[in-house]
Amino acid sequence: MNWTPIVDWLIEHGPRILLIIAISVAIYYTLRHFVPLLIRRAVSRTMEGKPETEVKKRIDTLSNVFIEVGIVFVGIVALFTIASELGINIAPALAGLGIAGIAVGFGAQSLVKDIFNGILILLEDHYTIGDVVKVAGIGGLVEDISLRRTVLRDLDGIVHSIPNGEIGIASNYTKEWSRVNMNVSVGYGEDLDHVIEVINRVGKEMAEDPNWAPRILKAPTVLRVDEFEDSGIAIKILGETKPLTQWDVMGELRMRLKKAFDQEGIEIPWPHTKVFFGATPEISIKGLAGQKISQSSPAQQATRPKHHR
């Protein structure tokens, strides 16, 4: 077998192909290194004064998207360049891609909608990686965002991949800061002024606790008497925390309030029913000792004959 043509071809085209691959790999690592730095500089200017955690989440989200888009673009350019070195005429392929792109545009409108919505989500900063959100009726922690879809992990550990085109309303629970919003019920017989004083004291003590102070931005305090419930009076408590910490703070606050209420003798009601027996005609009620108590209506008592001694 004559290897001369193959050797000649490798000598002529091999170095170029290797150079294309090397340049593509170099661009890949350059993107991975420099894109986060550039985005950090841009985001730091636009988000000046915002919490560092919010800035970092924004940088991570945009960096991932720009790197993915850059890698796809570099890969396509490298593929066509190598194909040209292999002697493949790429002009018909480019024309075919143009026609295919038109066909895909008509047939894959949902994909176009996903990408368009993804661009708006990123530009308008609806949410970022690390936020807890509710989108398309599903709530969870944002693990990944791309131009096409958003990936959430819920409290059960289930991962949901949601096309961005399905997202109409995005509810962000951890944007810049979070809120303690909870109701505590006490019995109707309690002194509400005393109850409010105890709740505010517990919230202040918790906000001054070294273990919890870094998570609390504003101490939980009573907002108002919120509602008359079936078994008790609901009191609304509000406070402000750092993102993602509101659930931990509310859990600790409930435990501290339970202990404080027990010490102060404040009743935490539970559902119960009181039964009252009215005066009904000739109904016999057996007492605990087995005695029968005969009751009659006022009308019967009025018409009953009186016995005189």
CATH topology of the largest domain: Helix Hairpins
Percent helix, as a range, is 40-55%
The total tally of domains equals: 3
What is the architecture of the largest domain at the second tier of CATH? Answer: Orthogonal Bundle
Number of helices: 7
Helices and strands, in order, run as: HHHHEEEEEEHEEHEEH
The amount of beta strand, in percent, is 15-25%
Tell me about the biggest sheet? 5 strands, antiparallel
* Spatial extent as radius of gyration: 36 Å
- Measure the end-to-end span: 144 Å
User: How many beta-strand segments?
Assistant: 10
Classified by CATH, the class of the largest domain is Mainly Alpha
* Order of adjacent strands in the largest pleated sheet: 4-3-2-1-5
Computed structural class:
alpha+beta
Uncertain parts? 283-309
Name the shape in a single word.
elongated
- Mean pLDDT across the residues is 81
Mind explaining what this structure looks like?
The protein has 3 domains: 104 residues, Orthogonal Bundle (Helix Hairpins), CATH 1.10.287; 41 residues, SH3 type barrels (Roll); 87 residues, Alpha-Beta Plaits (2-Layer Sandwich). The chain is built from 7 helices and 10 strands. The relative contact order is 0.08. A 5-stranded antiparallel sheet has the order 4-3-2-1-5. Strands 6-8-7 form a 3-stranded antiparallel sheet. The chain has 309 residues and is α+β, with helices and mostly antiparallel strands. The protein is elongated, with a radius of gyration of 36 Å. Helix 1 packs antiparallel against helix 2 and helix 5 packs across helix 6.
